[in-house]
Amino acid sequence: MARDGSVVPADPQAMVVVKKKTQTSRSWILIDAMGQGSMLDVDKYAIMHRVQINARDLRILDPLLSYPSTILGREKAIVLNLEHIKAIITAEEVLLRDPTDENVVPVVEELQRRLPKLSDIHQQQGDGKEYIGCQHDAEAADEDESPFEFRALEVALEAICSFLAARTYELELIAYPALDELTSKISSRNLDRVRKMKSAMTRLNARVQKVRDELEQLLDDDDDMADLYLSRKAGSVSPVSGSGAANWFATSPTNGSKISRASRASIATARFDENDVEELEMLLEAYFMQIDSTLNKLNTLREYIDDTEDYINIQLDNHRNQLIQLELFLSSGTVCLSFYSLVAGIFGMNIPYSWNDNHGYMFKWVVIVSGAFSAIMFLMITIYARKKGLIGS
């Protein structure tokens, strides 16, 4: 603003630069109910407007920020943050972040394979064409009854559970031989290998624990699980007129087949009972058991590491005790030899003794007797130490 109160117009180019800095574009892939994928390079405001979620929910999916594993149920979307899988699931489509990541590419391929319904696949192949892969018809028919969001959620849960299980298996292949080698030979190299392996195990254990806690929290709360039934909520809401706000979640022609009979009954009666979340509860429980099994393997590995550390400490204490025993043995021998040296030193001093006249043989006898006494004392200490087990035989 100028001194005279007039408004100074801002530079349009500077405004564009500021806008680009504040609205960083991210790479997304959109997979629809037919399994067709399309790349999206849009900012967060476009995503928020498309799936109708808050900025704090979208912030959870930011790869630059560190958030624990989370599964959030919103009015028209499921916000999914499971390690590298960062997705937004609606009743008709899936938005997956960073589709070019090497860990996300298998998830995209699996979504494109499993999201299309069996009836849609037959329709795509045309009339008169025989469906290939008839051996999977029974499995596909079971999945066909599940809502779209549950099929997408199952793919994500299966991918993250398999990923963590594979990392655990790789760690086990490295850890157990390294621990066995350490018990056979304690060296700086082996200790450093075990230290790095234990650090990797601690980090992996924390990641698995977060996923397990999130699934356990969902299973303990029926209301949170009910929020994940997007198709049921979309079917119970009256459609919005064209003059109103954009309806991003219009009911698809095949939406009726996505909802189970229990869900249809709950929509018709518009009330929630304990059977509403049974389908989702069974789905989450299956993967909860799988991730819990992975966590148990890591806990077993941790216990094996702790047992190895206890064994190493016992070995080190044993070596330390042996050094102390050797030091005590050598100190006892030194005391015995010092007595012999004391007698020899006294008689070897250049001091005239009146009783030494004409008795030169006394020196030799005293030296011999003191030496024999020192030897006998040292032998007695040695025998006593062996009886007490202080030194080996």
UniProtKB/TrEMBL annotation:
Its main location: membrane. It is found in: Membrane. The chain crosses the membrane at residues 328-351, 363-385. GO terms for molecular function: magnesium ion transmembrane transporter activity. One of its GO terms (cellular component) is membrane. SUPFAM superfamilies: Magnesium transport protein CorA, transmembrane region. It is a multi-pass membrane protein. InterPro entries: CorA_TM1_TM2 (IPR045863), MgTranspt_CorA/ZnTranspt_ZntB (IPR002523), MRS2-like (IPR039204). Residues 194-221 form a coiled coil. It comes from the Eukaryota. Magnesium transporter that may mediate the influx of magnesium. This is Magnesium transporter. The gene is LOC101515530.
